[in-house]
Amino acid sequence: MPVDNSSLHRRGEPHQQVVKQAINWLLRLRNNATNPRLRQECDVWRAEHLEHELAWQRVQSLQAELSSNLRAVPGAQVALNTLENSAQGLGRRQALKLLSGALLMGSAAWLGKDAVGWQQWTADFATATGERRGFQLLDGTRLELNTASAVDLDYTAQQRLIKLTRGEIIVTCGGIDEASPFDRPLRVHSRHGVYEGVGARFILRQDNDCTRLSVTSGMVAIHSPRGADGESIRVQAGQSYLIDHHQAKLAALLDMDAGAWVDGLIVTRNMRLGDFLNEVARYRHGYLTCSSDIADLRLSGVFRLENTDRLLAILPQTLPVQLGYRTRWWVTLERQV
């Protein structure tokens, strides 16, 4: 059925009352974890309106991050357990106030600690470092977010716009027909350009100086910046482009599979070790580097991202290198002696 998104704020932010409803559902599910009917009712509520799904994703993300951060602080586990036990013993209305307050205080502390963490909360869809998540939009479009990525949605009567504010995404365009309420073109905006997918699946990776567009199926038109003739650039399946503020140019073949991360993999083909470590560093906290005398060593293979420490431990088995850990978060590779 047609979805009325008129109540969404201009930036696509759910109303405070809808966020409270999402917290209410979260409490009910936590206290009735074995009730499949309640889970189904929550799924129906989420599907009723785009704003409901946005609120649900934000509350889920903040709760997970807040719990993780609290558990990392000495002595905070006791306070967290007390909060959870108190919420279970209260009526739903009182528990809602308690959890709402905890989430609000947690978000304030989060903002002071980590601006990227705050962006994860304020974005419509987001992932933390090392996290990868997929989202199904109401128009049938599928979004896959890579590590430390964030997007905002701006769906109106005139447009369907996805704004990539950080990181990397895979977009699989939803189908459009005349009877659909989502019959506007689907466009994606990055810091460096605007892209329109037509029956397409494509990857956008936004770095500081440029955005890389890789099309795996269908066609994507680059509307901005335009080509030398002033027309949109049409990118076909199998092609990649590098886009900055001034131009879009055909990109050379990558020495890795651009979309393998969606399956939790890095797939390399004769890749420089220095570049490989830069890629792995995106999926872990801390500092990861290698000495300059081994940076140009080459490696090929399939590496799993689920545990980057285990991934790094494999490298000395195939290359003349050794790992040096100053701390768990400070790792340097050097030539094997």
List its traits:
eleven-stranded mixed beta sheet; 31% strand; flat; alpha+beta; 16 strands; Phage tail protein beta-alpha-beta fold; disordered N terminus
Can you describe this structure?
This protein folds into three domains: 16-122, no CATH class; 126-250, Jelly Rolls, CATH 2.60.120.1440; 260-335, Phage tail protein beta-alpha-beta fold. It is of the alpha+beta class and 337 residues long. It has helices spanning 16-31, 36-48, 50-71, 76-89, 92-113, 115-122, 273-281, 308-318; strands at residues 125-126, 133-136, 142-145, 150-155, 160-172, 186-190, 193-206, 211-224, 233-236, 240-243, 248-250, 265-272, 287-290, 298-304, 321-327, 330-335. Helix 3 (50-71) packs across helix 5, helix 4 (76-89) packs antiparallel against helix 5 (92-113) and helix 5 crosses helix 6 (115-122). 34% of the residues lie in helices and 31% in strands. The protein is built from eight helices and 16 strands. A hairpin with a 2-residue loop joins strand 15 and strand 16 (330-335).
Helix content class: 25-40%
Shape by Cα distribution: flat
Note the main sheet: 11 strands, mixed
Q: For the CA atoms, what is the radius of gyration? A: 22 Å
**What portion of the residues fall into strands of 2 or more residues?**
25-35%
Poorly predicted regions are 1-12, 69-80, 86-98, 104-118
Secondary structure tally: strands: 16
Return the CATH topology of the largest domain.
Answer: Jelly Rolls
Task: Supply the number of helical segments.
Answer: 8
Helix and strand run? HHHHHHEEEEEEEEEEEEHEEHEE
CATH structural class of the largest domain: Mainly Beta
State the distance separating the first and last CA atoms. 66 Å
Structural class, by secondary structure, is alpha+beta
Mean pLDDT: 80
Number of domains: 3
Give the name of the CATH architecture of the largest domain.
Answer: Sandwich
